[in-house]
């Protein structure tokens, strides 16, 4: 079948097969042996029909006393069916096990690859599309690889054995019968190309549908609060209809070969019977040989049809594989050095020197020649209007982004020269965008740390979270729901604070860490933060300036530049932007 040698198909699938198939070579060898047995048993059945008809049956007709001579041949037929059944079961289950493991390996590797990419990648691709690549695209590959690996070898070997029987019986008749093959192969190739294009579109539209559904479910409060249910039904319904129509089109294209092949095969069988009758009349062929030939051709027709169907599945899988390959080719902008330096993070001094950064080249710079020093064991506060660059500084500390110009260093070492694991292990982050996992309180607080239950409870007490946690059903073992849906904003923030306290890192990054707290909780958390910040280098972002007036150093950022710096009293005396923001905050 010519579709097997398609250069594009091989170029897409070969990297996957080369990387993943080799590790299962022992199981593959076993499966191949049983494929050979199944194919040989099928061909032997067709071959045995000739002696049964020409010798045994005609002999019995002429001499009824020889009826027992049929039994050995009949037993061989029985044996061929037993061998075929057992061998088919063995190679099918073995190949399915191999294919399922290969696709599971790909799925794990795609997910692992995503985890190693930077934030810019996740900002470019909606989460629904990424989930679709891991689940839907890989599941399409799962079906394709499973069907192809299970059926390709067995059907191809069976076809080869049966063709050998046909040529053994009558080479001229076999050659005439196989005139159909070039036409069938051409049809399969044409339909395969159309299916591959449709497959890519299906995966793309399915990813879009998943992205829409995730957006709607995550924003369900806003959807219902603003009465947008009908609009979202229409938006999601349109995506559902597009996926439906494309799947219908794929089925129509994939099954188009069936009626055409049936007609072609009908003409071939007609020709074989007529031509075979003339050869029997000429004494060239016996009735048993013709019956054996027709049986072999009929049996060969089934694997030919299955191979055509496998090509359809293969082309759908290639469309999905191309999308997965695109993801593997994506390289994050944040790269580690081949031989990273060790980070000396005790008593860390953080230095920004002439740092310039833009999120997008078409936008203005988020940071413009920013330079400052955060002294070891001291608290440096970042304040200023929204969009001034405060969160960008914390993002760059964690190497979510790298500067286009300038250097960020810790104790004199450029953070680009150390491993990401060492760098981020030295930091604890409490962001205004709090992530709570659908897991227990214990697991959420201990996320990123190895701690005992007693240590977790101690951290929760420091974060003023112990009281509300104990009031939950099941207390510290309560499941918090997706994004902590069972908690208030302040409760989620205190869980995040407890998580940071438990991490016990030398660098503390606080991004509006107390913004969702009531006055009493804020007072308790501020006391805990003062304890936590002791002997740690702390960078803190706050809009309520009363929370940072005791900071050792305050940086005022506006439009990506440091416009003022100093301690609270000094900045108030200057009567500049800081003083105006402070007085405005008191009025609020």
User: In order across it, which strands form the biggest sheet?
Assistant: 6-7-8-3-9-10
Give the biggest sheet: 6 strands, mixed
Average of the residue pLDDT scores: 80
Order of helices and strands: HHHHHHHHHHHEEEHEEHEHHHHEHEEEHH
Description:
The protein has 588 residues and is α/β, with parallel strands linked by helices. The protein has three domains: 2-329, ABC transporter type 1, transmembrane domain (ABC transporter transmembrane region fold, Up-down Bundle); 348-426 and 507-516 and 535-588, Rossmann fold; 430-504, P-loop containing nucleotide triphosphate hydrolases (Rossmann fold). 64% of the residues lie in helices and 9% in strands. It has 20 helices and ten strands. The strands form two sheets. The protein has a six-stranded mixed beta sheet with strand order 6-7-8-3-9-10, with helices on both faces. Strand 4 and strand 5 form a beta hairpin. Helix 10 packs antiparallel against helix 11 (287-329). The protein is elongated, with a radius of gyration of 36 Å.
What layout of secondary structure does this protein have?
Layout: H1 7-20, H2 25-62, H3 70-115, H4 119-124, H5 127-169, H6 171-177, H7 180-218, H8 220-225, H9 229-254, H10 257-281, H11 287-329, E1 350-357, E2 367-374, E3 379-383, H12 390-397, E4 405-410, E5 413-414, H13 420-425, E6 427-430, H14 441-445, H15 453-462, H16 466-470, H17 489-503, E7 507-511, H18 519-533, E8 537-541, E9 553-558, E10 561-566, H19 568-574, H20 577-587
Parallel strand pairs: 3-8, 3-9, 6-7, 7-8
Antiparallel strand pairs: 1-2, 1-4, 4-5, 9-10
Helix pairs in contact: 2-3, 2-5, 2-11, 3-5, 5-6, 5-7, 5-11, 7-9, 7-10, 7-11, 10-11, 15-17
């Amino acid at each position: 079948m010519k579709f097997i040698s398609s250069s594009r198909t091989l170029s897409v699938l070969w990297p996957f097969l080369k990387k993943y198939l080799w590790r299962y070579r022992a199981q593959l060898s076993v499966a191949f042996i049983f494929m050979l047995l199944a194919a040989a048993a099928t061909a032997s059945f067709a071959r045995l029909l000739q002696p049964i008809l020409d010798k045994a049956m005609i002999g019995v007709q002429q001499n009824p006393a020889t009826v027992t001579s049929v039994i050995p041949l009949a037993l061989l037929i029985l044996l061929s069916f037993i061998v075929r059944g057992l061998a088919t079961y063995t190679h099918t289950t073995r190949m399915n096990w191999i294919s399922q493991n290969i696709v599971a390996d790909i799925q794990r590797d795609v997910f692992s690859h995503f985890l190693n990419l930077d934030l810019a990648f996740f900002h470019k691709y909606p989460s629904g599309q990424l989930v679709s690549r891991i689940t839907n695209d890989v599941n399409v590959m799962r079906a394709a690889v499973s069907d192809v690996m299970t059926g390709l070898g067995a059907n191809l070997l069976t076809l080869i054995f049966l063709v050998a029987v046909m040529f053994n019986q009558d080479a001229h008749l076999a050659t005439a019968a196989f005139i159909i093959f070039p036409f069938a192969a051409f049809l399969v190739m044409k339909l395969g190309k159309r299916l591959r294009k449709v497959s890519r579109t299906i995966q793309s539209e399915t990813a879009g549908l998943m992205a829409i559904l995730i957006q709607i479910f995550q924003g369900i409060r806003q959807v219902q609060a603003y009465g947008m249910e009908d609009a979202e039904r229409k938006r999601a319904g349109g995506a559902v209809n597009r996926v439906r129509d494309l799947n219908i089109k794929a089925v129509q294209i994939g099954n188009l070969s069936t009626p055409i092949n049936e007609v072609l095969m009908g003409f071939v069988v007609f020709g074989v019977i007529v031509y075979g009758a003339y050869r029997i009349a000429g004494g060239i062929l016996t009735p048993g040989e013709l019956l054996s030939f027709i049986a072999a051709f009929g049996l060969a027709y089934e694997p030919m049809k299955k191979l055509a169907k496998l090509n359809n599945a293969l082309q759908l899988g290639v469309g999905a594989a191309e999308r997965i390959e695109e993801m593997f080719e994506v390289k994050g902008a944040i790269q580690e050095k081949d031989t990273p330096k060790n980070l000396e993070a005790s008593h860390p001094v953080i230095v920004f020197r002439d740092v310039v950064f833009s999120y997008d080249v078409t936008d203005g710079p988020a940071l413009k020649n920013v330079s400052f020093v955060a002294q070891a064991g001291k608290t440096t506060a970042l304040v200023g209007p929204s969009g001034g660059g405060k969160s960008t500084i914390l993002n760059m500390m964690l190497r979510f982004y790298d500067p286009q110009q300038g250097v960020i260093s810790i104790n004199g070492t450029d953070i680009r020269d150390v491993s990401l694991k060492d760098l981020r292990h030295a930091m604890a982050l409490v962001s205004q965008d709090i992530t709570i996992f659908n897991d227990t309180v214990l697991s959420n607080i201990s996320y990123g740390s190895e701690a005992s239950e007693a240590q977790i409870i101690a951290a929760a007490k420091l974060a003023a979270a112990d009281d509300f946690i104990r009031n939950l059903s099941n207390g510290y073992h309560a499941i918090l729901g997706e994004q902590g849906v069972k908690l208030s904003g302040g409760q989620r923030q205190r869980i995040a604070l407890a998580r940071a306290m438990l991490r016990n890192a030398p660098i503390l990054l606080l991004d509006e860490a107390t913004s969702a707290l009531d006055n009493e909780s804020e007072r308790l958390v501020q006391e805990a933060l003062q304890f936590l910040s002791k002997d740690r280098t702390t960078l803190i972002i706050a809009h309520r300036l009363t929370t940072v007036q005791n900071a050792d150093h305050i940086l005022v950022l506006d439009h990506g530049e440091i416009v003022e710096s100093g301690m609270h009293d000094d900045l108030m005396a200057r009567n500049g932007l800081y003083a105006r923001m402070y007085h405005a905050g008191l009025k609020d």
